[in-house]
Amino acid sequence: MKLYDKAFNTEGVLILASAEALKTYFSNNEFDYTFPKGILPLVLDKKVFAMVTEETVDKLTIYDERAEVEQCLSSGKWEDLKVKFYLTIESNDKLLLLSHADFTQICDWHKGEYTQHRLFDKKWILNGVSTGEYQIECVRKKHDGKCILLMSLAKLADNKQISHNSFSLPTVQAWYK
Fold this sequence. Notes:
By secondary structure, the chain is α+β, with helices and mostly antiparallel strands. Helices cover 23% and strands 35% of the residues. The protein has helices at 19-28, 40-44, 67-75, 100-109, 169-174; strands at residues 2-9, 13-18, 48-52, 56-63, 82-89, 95-99, 132-143, 146-155. The strands form 2 sheets. The chain has a 5-stranded mixed beta sheet, with helices on one face. Strands 3-2-6 form a 3-stranded antiparallel beta sheet. The chain is globular and about 45 Å long.
């Protein structure tokens, strides 16, 4: 099932974030504008996924399963640029899809409380995501000057545990260039 399928102005960084984690973390910590160092604790805790992109992703498609990403990779039409990451959503939490500007303002100006942002938009909430551990896989391609990003957000089996060793920080940091 498609969770999202349209253009998205990322302001240069695409962010998926746990709403509760932002509120909890930034109610006790100042926002650090040094990217990616400033959000590294949330990244390592699997509460935030951030990826440097073009200013605007002309087509962002997010699926709730891996099959579409795997099919596209096997077609050979995608760049040899693939990221795999893990994200945790707790009970009574929401997954937010944010641009860099909105993320920064929510975390700095509103201590992580997204509903207090003057431009709050219900479109920030990625519907169809329930409590659990998720594996994110992402590929991109550029075609005729347009950036197209395909992402899967696949829920892992409840009995599968993820450790911090499940992803490598150099891989994550490579996306921050």
